[in-house]
Amino acid sequence: MDIKMIYFDEHMAFWVFSGVFIGFLGVAILIARLIGPIKPNKIKETTYECGQKPFGSARNFRITGITKYFGYAVIFFALDAFTWIILTAAISLSFNPSMVMAVTIYTIIVLVSVCYFLMEVKRLVE
């Protein structure tokens, strides 16, 4: 008995995999929607706000939550970029004065902005 194998080129394999993935995902969401309990109550309608005092309803959080936590996202990205700059400078083999000066200026800018955010965080959160 000779078994014939089906081979796809790179693009066709991607689209077949994507179709199967989307199909399984759609079926899983549909089954969860059909057999899952839908019982709204007061606790489910409140907004979970990572330790902050909740405000508004869960339906309004899409708009107000974005602005409330925007500062935290900015600080995260600033410190993330800061880490990459410092790591890149640390593994560099040439410690010339211009590189040290650039990293020093960047470090001062980031630290000043983080200090400003920490002073203003109370106004941004409440």
Count of all domains: 2
The secondary-structure class comes to: mainly alpha
What composes the largest sheet? none
- Rounded to an integer, what's the Rg over CA atoms? 25 Å
Count the beta strands: 0
Instruction: List segments where confidence is low: pLDDT < 50 over at least 5 consecutive residues.
Output: none
In sequence order, what are the helices and strands, one letter per element?
Answer: HHHHH
Oligomeric state of this protein: single chain
The helicity comes to over 70%
Q: Taking all residues together, what is the mean pLDDT?
A: 76
Molecular shape: flat
Strand proportion: under 5%
Features:
flat; 5 helices; 126 residues; mainly alpha
Describe this structure in words.
With 126 residues, this protein is mainly alpha-helical. It has 2 domains: 1-53, no CATH class; 69-126. The protein is built from 5 helices and no strands.
